[in-house]
Structure formats: structure tokens, C-alpha cells
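User: Hey, my collaborator sent me this sequence without any context and asked if I could get a structure. I don't really work with proteins. Can you help?
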Amino acid sequence: MLVLSRKSKQKIIISDNIEIEILSIEGDQVKIGINAPKDIDVNRYEVYEAIKKENNAASKKINIKRFLN
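Assistant: No problem. I've predicted the 3D structure and written it out in C-alpha cell form, which is a compact way to encode the shape of the chain:
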């Protein structure tokens, strides 16, 4: 894991097309802005995990239906 220190208004660039900017730091919260191409999904980790869980559950339902027919 790469660990970087950034101050407010400083940026990080990933692979020439993803830009992350530290917008503000207030107490224990850091607000970040992310500019990425529309074909790249950007989610909070907990949202990503929920989507992954839902997709796994949906794929299991599909496989069960296939075996029942």
C-alpha cells in the first residue's frame, strides 16, 4: 500500500486519468473529490461491498433455477 500525506487543495493522479483532490480537512473528516472517466466505477467501500454481496446472491439464485428446470 502506498501511503501519501496531502494538504487541503493538493491532488493525487492515478494512471493519467484519475484525479483525487483533498477538498477540506475538518476534525477527523477528510473531504475528497474524485475525477475519473465515466467507465470507471467509484464507490465508497461499504457501497462496493453491498453491491458485491447483492451480485453474489443474485448469481446463486440464477444457478439454482438452472438446476431446478
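In plain terms: The beta strands are 11-14, 18-26, 29-35. You can pass these C-alpha cells on to your collaborator as they are.
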